[in-house]
Amino acid sequence: MELNPPLIIASGVGGMGEYLKLIDPKYIGAYTLKTITLFPKEGNLPPRLFATQEYLMNNIGLENVGIDAFIEKLNNNQYEELFEKTKVIFSLGGDDAQEYKRVAQKIAPYEDHFEAIEVNFSCPNVKKGGLNILSDLSSLQDLLIYMRKVLKGFLIAKIGVEGIFVEQIAQILKDHAWNGITLINTIRGLQIVNDKVFKGGLSGPILKPIALRAVYEVKNRAPELYVIGSGGIMCEKDADDFFKVGADAISLGTAIYKDPHIVERIAKHIGRCYG
Ligand SMILES: Cc1cc2nc3c(=O)[nH]c(=O)nc-3n(C[C@H](O)[C@H](O)[C@H](O)COP(=O)(O)O)c2cc1C
After folding, report:
1. Which of 87, 141, 174, 264 lies most in the core, judged by the most C-beta atoms within 10 Å?
2. CA 205 to CA 231: how far, in whole Å?
């Protein structure tokens, strides 16, 4: 996958392309759509976000229109402007292995629209889904083999640090001819808000050392995997650090909520240092 610049909008934070209204597309290499599942999901009830300087905690719950409605919109050219402006990565999710397979079957005929398919194996905010699948190695391998057969293009697994060791999944992905890995997703956290338990996925600066370590370990063991660094990249120095430990591209999430100009600044920095 050739991205110029190697800077990606992370899944979820930019919705279905809305963030492109705020930035010049020349500053991004690709735009990842929000994860799409087999059935529509309304997501979780509020509160959905809790923010501090160190982290954002979200409990969105994979709200999305579902694959059939997504394909209908695709056929009605609703994403045409997005496709014209930038490369797009489709993010695929599900509640169990069967659902991942069915979404893969449904999106397969449309693969040409996308630079890559990123499979979200790590959403912490749904009752079933990614994290469970990762912890059952034999059905995980069956699923990876199946998806590799159905999807012919650039195939990326998005993995957190819960459910499986990143070194182990990297080896399995390599063995089954997957092309890349996004490291990491949010990590499960809990806060007491107004005396009530609030559970969600942590993102932002708190993730950076964890994500850096994950990228470092994977790139050392599986250099042929395309590695997208995701987690706490908030400034130019953060971007540098991810490239130093071997990331092929970086992905920005929480940072774009904090400062919409950060994409432009990091893209220019990458151009100067690595262009
Ligand atoms: C509000 C919000 C929604 C998210 N939704 C998704 C999603 O739908 N699919 C996904 O793979 N990751 C999702 N993520 C995870 C991000 O893509 C990213 O991997 C994570 O936030 C870590 O990067 P960051 O620290 O730069 O935000 C979401 C993150 C946030 C903050």
Report:
1. 87
2. 7
67: in domain: yes
Q: Model confidence over 49-97: pLDDT tens digits?
A: 899 999 999 998 889 999 999 999 999 999 999 999 999 999 999 989 9
pLDDT computed for residue 192 by the predictor: 93
- SS3 category, 139: helix
Helix and strand numbers, DSSP H then E, in the chain: 10, 12
Specify the pLDDT at position 127: 58
* Number of domains comprising the chain: 1
- 123 catalytic residue (yes or no): yes
Please state, in angstroms and rounded to a whole number, the distance separating the CA atoms of residues 124 and 132: 10
The span from the CA of 138 to the CA of 146, in Å, is 12
Ligand 1 atom closest to 257 (CA): 31
50 lies in some domain: no
* Distance from Cα 129 to the centre of ligand 1, integer Å: 15
| Identified catalytic residue from 123, 155, 170, 250 | 123
Can you tell me which atom of ligand 1 is nearest the CA of 48? Answer: 1
Instruction: Please tell me the distance from the alpha carbon of residue 19 to that of residue 10, in angstroms, as a whole number.
Output: 11
Cα–Cα separations (whole angstroms), residue 88 to 132, 174, 239, 258: 27, 23, 21, 23
The phi, psi pair for 35, rounded to 5°, reads -60, 135
CA–CA separation, 132 vs 160, rounded Å? 12
Contacts of 131 (CB under 8 A, 6+ apart): 121, 122, 123, 124, 160, 162, 163
Burial class (CB in 10 A: 0-12, 13-18, 19+), 44: middle
Q: How far apart are CA 62 and CA 49, in angstroms?
A: 13
